[in-house]
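Hi R.,

Here are the chain sequences for the assembly we discussed:
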Amino acid sequence: MSNKPTHNTSSGELAGFVRLNEGIKGVVLIAFQINIMALNAILLAHRAGEVALGFGVISKELRSLSVELTGLMQELSNDAYLAVNLISDLLRQERRYRLLKKATDLVVNPSPALRDVMLRREEEFSLITHRVRDVRLRLLDRLEDARKLCQFGTAISRSAKIEAAYGREYGRALAEVSQEFDQKIQNILPSIEALCTGMQRR
Amino acid sequence: MKTAQTIYQEGSHRWVVIARDPSKPDCVIDTNEYLVSREGDNLLTDPGGSEIFPAVFAALSTIVDPMSIRYLFASHQDPDIISSLGLWLECNPDIRCYVSRLWSSFIPHFGGDENSLTAIPDEGMSMPLGSGQIEYVPAHFLHSSGNFHLYDPDARILFSGDVGAALLPPEEDELFVRDFDKHIRHAEGFHRRWMGSTEAKLDWCERASRMKIDMLCPQHGSIYQGDDVMRFINWFAELPVGLSTFRHRR
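And here is the predicted structure of the full complex:
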């Protein structure tokens, strides 16, 4: 990105990060639902006893996954907040740069001091632009972590389905729970994919 | 672009008005900025909003180096008065802005901090400018609750902020009032609505009538000079203002 402020790019970035934050809220809600569901599944497996030992282990894994995912989303949300702050600053700098540039262009012989002011503005703008870029890269790393976590969740929710088959008289209840696990995880993945795509596009 | 015109000069002591910007966006109200300069000490009154900063800066550069502005005076806190503060501070971080104590924690939303703002106490104050003095004269509630005018006793000029302002049609936007009766029609609606307190208005009129004023310089519209100054003060004293007049007009 050029170190000269370019109009409108920052406002587009700002909208992107605001959308990201909204997407994160959706993932956190599903992670919370998985957490509650996994807790109930652990209790169900406990009641079922030996026939649901494997199901119990998988439910605990899913519960840990939901906690980890929530933590990751919190970190993402903090980064998105930081990015919104930086971009708001960038927008302010852009406006100031535009007005100072206009003033410099209107003055017949701009003094060296005025040119120094413009240079300082450009340096400041470049610095903030780099910080925004760093935050975006960090966000992409975290989104990649979240995607891997969800892929792991998909695998273990399928294992839960298999384990449910050994549940004898609890088999139907366990199958229903494992089906819900799978659906919830399947709901998260597209959201994470959309967040990744949204960030990469910028 | 705005133009700069000297309206008073006595040696190195001068007042310059920066006014009339034909290229300004229609959505932005036109404003008058005044440069008060004395022995190299430069003060700019109500430097204006951010959007007109380039025009003010450029017009000023035809008279002085804009980077040499040492003081800003904000009659009150409105955006058309002082939202350019951040830009002026970019050019000269040592600039000091004088504003009512009421607004010293509000104005930093436009830029600056406690190091760049000097709070004027409610009763007003004097400050040296070159070899002379200027006075910050209380004009509270006209229209802002923390409002000041700037008086230069040697030049006998009162910068009166929004008092005396007129919203002129383009074909009548003379720099000086030529025909008081014709001009004042463009000031009436503004004063009725903006000046909310009869008590504050009469108090100001009483004090202003005792001051020696050759020119009364508002932030919008034309400058009153000579007999028109007293004519304006009398007109303002008689003008019904405040909520009761507003109710009638609804």
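Chain B has two domains: 1-99, 133-245. The first strand of chain B starts at residue 3 and ends at 10.

Let me know if anything looks off.

Best,
T.
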